[in-house]
Amino acid sequence: MAKFKVVVTDYEYESLENERRELEKVGAELVPAQLRYASPKEIIEVCRDADGLIVQYAKITREVIEGLEKCKVIARYGIGVDNVDVKAATEKGIFVVNVPDYCIEEVSDHTVALLLASVRKLTLYDKAVKSGTWDYKVGKPLFRIQGKTLGLIGFGKLARRVAEKMKPFGVNIITYDPYISPELTEKYGVKLVSSLEELLKNSDFISIHVPLTDETYHLLSDKEFELMKDNVIIVNTARGPIIDEKALVKALEQGKVMYAGLDVTEAEPIPKDSPLLKFDNVIITPHVAWYSEESQKELQTKAARGVAEVLSGKIPTYLVNPEVLDVIKKKKRR
Fold this sequence. Notes:
It holds the Pfam family 2-Hacid_dh_C. GO terms for molecular function: NAD binding; oxidoreductase activity, acting on the CH-OH group of donors, NAD or NADP as acceptor; transcription corepressor activity. This protein is about 35% helix and about 15% strand. It contains 13 helices and twelve strands. Strand 1, helix 1 and strand 2 form a beta-alpha-beta unit. The protein is elongated and about 70 Å long.
């Protein structure tokens, strides 16, 4: 009989063998489920006696967490943990782990690809040629990449790789990130600006690299778009709700935004009646920036490994809520 029960609340992968191999090492049974759109009560019903959870999109709310009777760890497939109530988990003494390094290359590649495709209006030309129009003027005006300014909102690992990959194109790179020092950005040849407003006013291209939090929800809205240069290009491979889509639509209609490259949208999948779908100068990919065969295997393996580490009594390699250690210590003293 297995020592532990680990529920995979939801997943899109063809197989869970990578997870199974990792969990078997600590005597854990893997229980797959598909609870992405389930209610809190439905999730609790399946996960109540689980020792650990591995989550992709399912909402692990405070209500769910309070209904978990044995859970020691919640692992998120991915970097962001916005679908897990980390505060509630911490209060209950549950470790939250993620996989912050599995797709740095893929997401930075995708970011650069969206940016270059937008600057050169590749999708617009492709559509024109396939509809019978062979005319360079379809995409006028195009502007040279060299000498332009790329503004990175946030300067974590992903943004740093984007900076490294864009440097050879001859762009000036600036960033706004209140949590880092000028000394760090200087190592990458990037200038740290003092405010988001300064970044928006001075950037020809803007790329978003911050997590979704209460502070970053609709970080770019009407006021922010008004501050931007005319013909600005926006790329978002972070989280959809960081951009107020109504404000983005307005900026596209007014011609303020020349092109947008989005791998994420406010609602996913994007609604069929979304006004963003009508624009030829908006590229939308289905939250795929993270994906390659190699990154998927790494993601599945490391998410399960994080759970296995906790169940075997170790502090996990990728701990999202280090405050939980104090909570657990206090509980042991009681």
